[in-house]
């Protein structure tokens, strides 16, 4: 009888040990899969890094423009205002009266709603300058939301195809589509 007890105990211990080992392997596999996923996400972010333009001053404008767009997406009014001022300062260096006027309107916006309303005109000017000088490497996506600006529509530039609407933020994050890709 004692032998049966010892055998049963050994079997139960063996099964538990085996299950525990499988559980740890599964956790390790899940963890390594998760780490691989994070790495893939990082690689995806790397592939959507800022494009390089043929004009160094315009690279600066575009970097500030993307900062502005991202803060409009996030509905971060304070940072969006700061970014709009930085776009204006960077555009001043290009000495383009039309672009400077659009940037001044954005930089002087009193609130997020006004800033979003001025964003389409600013986008059109930055897009015009990019098309004029060209993209050296990478891609810029010209995206459009037909509902922005009281259904008149609104454009924005982005480093990736995923729609993140700066006109509505989280209210209508995915409203829009890619209309054009600017590249070398």
Automatic annotation (TrEMBL):
Domain DUF3347 residues, every copy: 61-137
Domain of life: Bacteria
Pfam family name, one: DUF3347
UniProt keywords, alphabetically: Signal
Biased composition (Basic and acidic residues): 26-42
Signal peptide bounds: 1-17
Region (Disordered): 26-45
Protein name: DUF3347 domain-containing protein
Organism this protein belongs to: Solitalea longa
Lineage: Bacteria, Pseudomonadati, Bacteroidota, Sphingobacteriia, Sphingobacteriales
